[in-house]
């Protein structure tokens, strides 16, 4: 991956943008795609759409969600300790002793989830497992002091950090799902070089609020009314200790994009993605989403009389933690797969699962 693309990915994952507060990451997305799209627009919910215009009304929407899990300040007690609620879902047992960053009026306030020292824990004490049992320490003397730096409604995220474990494997917060946003942007980057050959119109979208309520994907799919909707997200890798592959499948970091199949997803699109990967020698993996997918795709297939829906995922270790691990090659291969898939679409494509005559 070239330096410019790496810097863009780093800009995305280090931006602070939990559900409902995505603007920093959305601005990073806009700043990149504006050079590779025919138009870029935003909507009332904060979705950002980059469009490459095709030769027909047939359209493909590629959507990664731009929000990450985070926190919102809910209470400040008399002693100046801060309490939060979760934006999205996470394992509360990860939090004690962890540093996070609160954003107050555009300024960063460092905070730490407090915990009793091991020496103070009594036999039989239960480890905190609810967010309201944890407090944030910002070094305040009392409530009045704390309120000078933090307010109810301020948002917070894991403290940004980005490191390369190897030249391919990187660790950061918010790989879920800045990876999907990156892939959507990279498809536009590829399309810009060959857009005269592209038949369908392509919308690459960074959606909002997937981790909380799904409003971004639902409203933008209703607005754009794409023929095909591809949700690009992360999925659990199962290449580390303690994972039952009978449940989570055999998914490896660096093994390529993961193409899902299930009751919500269009079998013709799935088959065409598999064929494209084979033809172009793009490594890929397969998994199943028997019912709901748990992605933005769950907003697509019910709309507008039906959108032919697909889910393509990037393997992610340690999802919804402060340190998520992904492969940069997986990002590039996912974007290449979608780009090559779009290039194959012509006016004669048939997306109906079956015909009765």
Average the pLDDT over all residues and give the rounded result. Answer: 95
Span between termini:
49 Å
Radius of gyration: 21 Å
* Proportion in helices: 25-40%
Q: If strands are numbered along the chain, what order do they take across the biggest sheet?
A: 1-2-12-3-13-16-14-15
User: Could you name the CATH homologous superfamily of the largest domain?
Assistant: Zn peptidases
Q: Give the strand tally.
A: 17
Largest sheet: 8 strands, mixed
Structural class: alpha+beta
**Number of alpha- plus pi-helical segments:** 8
Strand portion: 25-35%
Give a topology summary.
Layout: H1 3-14, H2 23-33, E1 39-42, E2 48-52, E3 59-65, E4 70-76, E5 82-87, E6 99-104, E7 107-113, E8 136-137, H3 143-146, E9 155-158, E10 162-164, E11 169-172, H4 175-194, E12 201-207, H5 215-224, E13 228-236, H6 245-248, E14 258-261, H7 267-279, E15 285-288, E16 308-316, E17 324-327, H8 328-344
Parallel strand pairs: 3-12, 3-13, 13-16, 14-15
Antiparallel strand pairs: 1-2, 2-12, 4-5, 4-9, 6-7, 6-9, 7-8, 10-11, 11-17, 14-16
Helix pairs in contact: 1-2, 1-4, 2-4, 4-8, 7-8
Give your account of this protein's structure.
By secondary structure, the chain is of the alpha+beta class. It has two domains: 3-68 and 173-344, Zn peptidases (Aminopeptidase, 3-Layer(aba) Sandwich), CATH 3.40.630; 70-158, Elongation Factor Tu (Ef-tu), domain 3 (Beta Barrel). Helix content is 25%, strand content 26%. It has eight helices and 17 strands. It has helices at 3-14, 23-33, 143-146, 175-194, 215-224, 245-248, 267-279, 328-344, and strands at 39-42, 48-52, 59-65, 70-76, 82-87, 99-104, 107-113, 136-137, 155-158, 162-164, 169-172, 201-207, 228-236, 258-261, 285-288, 308-316, 324-327. An eight-stranded mixed beta sheet has the order 1-2-12-3-13-16-14-15, with helices on both faces. A hairpin with a 4-residue loop joins strand 10 and strand 11 (169-172). The longest helix is centred in the middle third of the chain and has 20 residues, at 175-194. It is globular.
């Amino acid at each position: 991956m070239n330096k410019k693309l790496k810097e863009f990915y780093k800009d995305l994952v280090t931006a602070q943008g939990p559900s409902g507060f995505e603007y920093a990451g959305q601005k990073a997305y806009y700043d990149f795609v504006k050079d590779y799209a025919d138009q870029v627009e935003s909507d009332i919910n904060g979705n950002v759409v980059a469009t490459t215009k095709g030769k027909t009304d047939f359209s493909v929407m590629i959507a990664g969600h731009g929000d990450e899990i985070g926190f919102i300040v809910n209470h400040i007690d008399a002693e100046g300790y801060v309490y939060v609620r979760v934006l999205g879902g996470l394992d509360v047992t990860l939090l004690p002793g962890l540093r996070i960053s609160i954003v107050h009026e555009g300024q960063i306030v460092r905070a730490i989830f407090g915990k009793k020292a091991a020496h103070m824990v009594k036999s039989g004490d239960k480890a905190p497992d609810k967010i309201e049992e944890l407090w944030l320490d910002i070094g305040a003397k009392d409530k009045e002091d704390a309120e000078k730096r933090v307010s109810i409604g301020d948002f917070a995220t894991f403290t940004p950090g980005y490191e390369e474990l190897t030249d391919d494997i990187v660790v950061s917060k918010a790989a879920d799902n800045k990876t999907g946003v990156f892939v959507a942007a990279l498809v536009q980057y590829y399309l810009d070089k060959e857009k005269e050959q592209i038949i369908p119109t392509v919308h690459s979208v960074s959606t909002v609020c997937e981790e909380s309520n799904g409003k971004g994907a639902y409203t933008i799919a209703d607005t754009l009314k794409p023929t095909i909707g591809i949700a690009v997200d992360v999925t659990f890798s199962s290449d580390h200790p303690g994972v039952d592959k009978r449940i989570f499948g055999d998914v490896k970091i660096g093994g390529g994009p993961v193409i899902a199949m299930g009751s919500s997803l269009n079998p013709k699109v799935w088959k065409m993605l598999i064929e494209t990967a084979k033809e172009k020698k793009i490594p890929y993996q397969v998994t199943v989403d028997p019912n709901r997918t748990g992605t933005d795709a769950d907003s697509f297939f019910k709309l507008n009389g039906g959108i032919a829906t697909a889910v393509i995922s990037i393997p992610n270790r340690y999802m919804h933690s402060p340190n998520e691990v992904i492969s940069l090659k997986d990002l590039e291969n996912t974007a290449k797969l979608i780009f090559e898939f779009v290039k194959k679409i012509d006016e004669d494509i048939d997306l109906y699962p079956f015909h009765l005559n």
